[in-house]
Amino acid sequence: MTFGHLVIDSNAALLFALLPLFVTLLHINLAQAGALSTLLLMTSSITQPLFGFAHDRYPLFPMAAAGLLLAGIGMGLTGFATSYIQMVALVLISGIGIAAFHPQAVAQAARASAGSQEWGIAMFFTGASLGTGIMSLLIVPLSYRFGPHATLVTVIPAVIAAALFLRAYASWMRPLQRPPGGASAAASVRAVALPLGMLLVVSILRSAVLTAYLTFLPTLVVFRTGSLGLGAVALAAFLFSGSLGAIIGGAVAHRIGSTPVVLVSLVAGLLGLLPVPWLPTPLLVPWMVGAGVLMFASEAQVTALAQRLLPAFVGTASSLIMGVGLGLGNAGALVTGAVADRRGIQVAMTATTLLMVGAIAAACVYALSMRGERSTAPRDAW
User: Fold this and answer.
1) C-alpha distances in angstroms, 315 versus 43, 56, 117?
2) For 2-174+185-381, which CATH superfamily applies?
3) CB of 165 within 8 A of CB of 154?
4) CA atoms of 6 and 143, how far apart (whole Å)
5) Which residues contact 61 (CB under 8 A, 6 or more apart)?
6) How far apart are CA 336 and CA 344, in angstroms?
7) How many whole angstroms separate alpha carbon 174 and alpha carbon 20?
8) Which of 84, 183, 221, 237 could form a disulfide bond with 288, CB atoms 3.0-4.6 angstroms apart?
9) What pLDDT does residue 120 have?
10) Residue 296 pLDDT greater than 80, yes or no
């Protein structure tokens, strides 16, 4: 599941890393560029609850394998687009493939992590940041060598991963067991509406900030230095360190609980990202290493907390946080791009970072609501 996560999320990195190139080739502005990123991320996120519901109903249908192929082929053809409309269509296709993959994969990762879910879900999430980081480093030199048609590289890992997933369906993939006569998904969601809603707010606001940096960090570096390569390195540093942050967050959460990890990560992430748009160029890459560790430590734990609130419907829980939450938050790229066209990219990214204040407040409300419910909620939901 982690390898599939690596492959599926590498598709978005191709768009992030080559966005300055697409701006030039398609003759678009930063708002339109931000809209591409937003479309990819919102399509791949907001539609996830549909696939999460389908997975809970038909857990053995090979949605993850189909999603891998659809996403890889769609993103692989972006280098052949000659108009903005064509690019929009290909990004939309890729986003649907990404959405199809996630609910089934994260549900199976949770099943495989029984007894140490904080750690297992964190390992699953490392695949995403590793895949994004690897592709951001790989695609720039490939585009220098082969031109925009280098985007076809995404098809190769997609085919490999899909083949492995198809093999898994016949061997060890199993549906999650539910007790007979249990509550429906809708009733279960209503029972935990307040804490689940606060986790959703955390996911939305945190995602808005992350999306802005994933989308525009290379553009920020190009704006300040003129180097597309340095922008890719800064993005890769952020993402690779994010993998380390997810592992550290999982290990710490296994010992002290996921809620403290989320709170500390949000506060530290805010302080780590605020100076980034204004840092001297030599400090940028090493600073992004620290910022990545801090920001990504909480990503898997928000999903793990939601899964514990809805233990009989982990596909639904995961798709709400990774789908609706991340999807709505992905509008951060569109807003940041629009502000950047008017006020400059440094001001826009600073303003977007301040959304972390709202995420911190929502996490505090979640913690207080769970403290009031601890007498009835499972201990590990904390």
Assistant:
1) 17, 6, 15
2) MFS general substrate transporter like domains (1.20.1250.20)
3) no
4) 21
5) 54, 55
6) 10
7) 43
8) 237
9) 78
10) yes
